[in-house]
Amino acid sequence: MQVVTVDCAGEITNPLEYVVFDMSSSIRISAATKLTLEGAKREDETFDELLDRLAISRTEEDVREMAGFAEEGIEEHMKQKREDLNESFKGRTSGAE
Fold it and tell me: What are the tens digits of pLDDT across the range 38-67?
């Protein structure tokens, strides 16, 4: 690691040397949230790795690409099951009147 010298005005006095700082951040969370995160954390995982894993950011294009994962005919199958369920509810509620 190189050392940088800075004068009182904040100017670097030895520009050929530098320091790489590994800055860390703190976030405030409730005790309940901490317990939830600890439950989700893998044994060999740091909290930074956990949050990185949980903070999934997907673009609209990513979602469109993932939409094609279902098997052929699943849309019709789901529609039929929804209709069956609706009919089942009608049968249960119509007799109660």
Answer: 999 999 998 888 888 888 777 777 777 767
